Amino acid sequence: MPYRKKLGRLYAVAGFACPLLLVSLLATLLYFPVTTSHDFWAPDEPLFAEVSRHMFRTGKILIPQFAGQPFTYLPPFSYWMIALSARFLGEFNEAAARASVVLFAAMALLSTFVLAARMFTWSVAYASTLILATSALFFHQASWLQSDMILVGLTTLAAAFLYCGLDSQQGWWKWYAGAGLVAGLAVLTKGPLGFLLPSIFLISFWTCAGKRLTHLFLPVVTFSAATAAVSLPWFVLAAQEAGPGFMREVLFKHNVGMLFQSWSHRQPPYYYFLHLPWGFAPWSLVLPAALVHSFRQLKHSSGPGSATCTPDGERGASRHLRGLLLWCVLSIIFFSVMSGKQAKYLLPVYPALAIIVAHFLYGHPGAFPQAARSLRYPALLGGCAMLLLSLSTPFLAWKWMPVLLGYSLLASFLFLALGAPAFWFLYRGKPWGMLTVWTALSVIVSLMATDSFFPLLNEHKSYRRIAGLAAATAGNGLPLAIYDIGRHQTGGILYYSNRPVAHLQDPAQVGHFMACSPDFVLFTTGRSVRKLQALSGTPLAVLAETKIGHRQIALLRPVQSLEKDQLGPE
Question: What's the pLDDT score for residue 14?
């Protein structure tokens, strides 16, 4: 008996340590290297960095501040985490800020592992974690300084808690309360969406478990009360501090308003059906076959006599599949109904898609060769796409950015050397081979991007150089201003100039600013240079002009002041 107890403890420790080790290794190889490779890139990264840095420096964390004004785009939790990460690492920089996002990506992977392991098998759990980690959009967003990956980590963890509550006979309320606490943090990240997404998961799996909706009252009350206990105090304190207008902006314009009439990113209802294939690539090639297989399994398990001829394990797997599919369908419908749409908004659905694909590929090893026939055409399509990508990469680099031509040739070779074998394994019905090769390819791409691609691209995506030039030019006390540059784009100017900058909204403000300040330094777009020349009573000199992303940015100063500086003191 003592040996059995020790062996049981050993299995328990291994059951916790193995997935934690896997997720840590994935984050270390795939995401953490990218955090140090480049500056904050416009438009969103410098914006989040500037708001979080203000909290880091001042310690004022209740109301997010940007350019001296309350920042109403999002509640504060993502900024808190970025500032806390920098405080823990001792310095606010690119790596420290992005480390917080990587940790929440790891949280999403670990929560996906827990869900898949409790629903199916450990093989499915490991596979779903690797599939999610290497899907294109998740891979990109896991080291990008935004709030979306923080939301995905929290909502997936809340879903794992809710599932444990559904699966527990005793102490269920603790799991629902824990899910509510996590959902409360998600509400503080992206508003009511943080509560709605776990609620969709709860309704989906409660319905598919065959439980009565009337019995859902106590779990919903427990979950909702815990969510409110975490999130409501900030809303009350923020309303007292900044006024009801601040809360109306946060809740209704930038959160609830996006459901009905978004102020930006308005897209048609079919938007996600066009963007999901590349966002979930390469596993989107497998997804149609996985969905067809799942629906067939559900039809078989619910057919005549299925209750007597289907083993309990298969009935449980069918129930879980039904819950996952309903979770995906309801979530996609919800996001499609929303007026504002971006591909990254659909990221909370990716854990469910990863588990569905993993169950198809690894849930039934003995039956897979028959199902593998449906993957031959997707495998051929993926191989052709990889061949086309390897041939077009050098041409695109030569046309758009010749400095990357040498690295594009190396990337082209890697796509052929590793990408093509991955789809060959899939064609031959060996999914573990594809998963292994594709994970290795993802690691190599991440390291290559960190070492070469991102540092070279950084010159075309960062405000550091032109903002540093403006700060140096205006270092003797000259006022610094911005005109005709969107608020999202001004984050890089504020962050890298590291000094107060006036934000001019219209030509009247520009004229008043020029009249009050005969000598100044001004950021503007290339299209506004002539307009400002006409507004100014004196000619303006272009100190620098550069293209950041797709925007042409110019730095202006009066010619007379520039000539006086060049001549020196009399």
Answer: 54
User: Which residues are within 8 A (CB) of 523 and not within 5 positions of it... i.e. 6 or more apart?
Assistant: 466, 470, 480, 481, 482, 483, 485, 493, 501, 553, 554, 555, 556
The predicted structure's pLDDT at residue 312: 44
Q: Measure CA 521 to chain center.
A: 35
Contact (CB, 8 A) for 254 and 340: no
Give the separation between CA 303 and CA 184, rounded to whole angstroms.
41
Helix (H) / strand (E) element for 503: namely strand 502-504
Query: Which pLDDT tens digit goes with each residue over 58-80?
Result: 999 999 998 888 888 889 999 99
Q: Is the pLDDT of residue 562 over 90?
A: no
H helix or E strand, kind and range, residue 13: helix 2-26
The closest of 321, 298, 195, 169 to 256, measured between CA atoms, is 195
Torsion of Cα atoms, 463 then 465 then 467 then 472, to 10°: 170
Q: What is the CA radius of gyration of the chain?
A: 27
Q: Model confidence over 86-136: pLDDT tens digits?
A: 999 989 999 999 999 999 999 999 999 999 999 998 889 999 999 999 999
Mean pLDDT score, 411-437: 85
Q: Which of 295, 108, 314, 327 is nearest to 207 (CA)?
A: 327
Decide if pLDDT at 12 tops 70. no
d(CA 128, CA 23): 12
Q: What is the pLDDT of residue 307?
A: 45
Q: Are 444 and 531 in contact (CB under 8 A)?
A: no
Phi first, then psi: what are they for 218, rounded to 5°? -65, -45
Name 394's Cβ contacts closer than 8 Å, sequence gap at least 6.
405, 408, 409, 412
- Tokens 């400095």 correspond to 403
Cis peptide before 43 (omega within 30 of 0): yes
d(CA 29, CA 139): 11
Q: Does residue 301 register a pLDDT over 80?
A: no
- Tell me the pLDDT tens digit for each residue of 348-382: 999 999 999 999 888 765 545 555 677 888 888 88
Q: 91 phi and psi, to 5 degrees?
A: -160, 145
Q: Report the alpha-carbon distance of residue 40 to residue 45 in Å, rounded.
A: 5
**Contact yes or no for 100/84 (Cβ under 8 A):** yes
361 burial (CB, 10 Å; 0-12 / 13-18 / 19+) is: buried
Q: Is 144 helix (H, G, I), strand (E, B) or coil?
A: coil
- The gap from C-alpha 90 to its chain's centroid, in whole angstroms, comes to 25
Render pLDDT for 230-268 as a digit per residue (tens, 0 to 9). 999 999 999 888 887 777 777 776 666 666 666 567 788
Those residues with Cβ within 8 angstroms of residue 106's Cβ, 6 or more apart along the chain or in another chain = 23, 24, 26, 27, 153
Please say whether the beta carbons of 334 and 200 come within 8 A: yes
Q: What is the DSSP string of 259-305?
A: HHS-SS-B--TTHHHHHHHHHTTTGGGTHHHHHHHHHHHHHHHTSTT
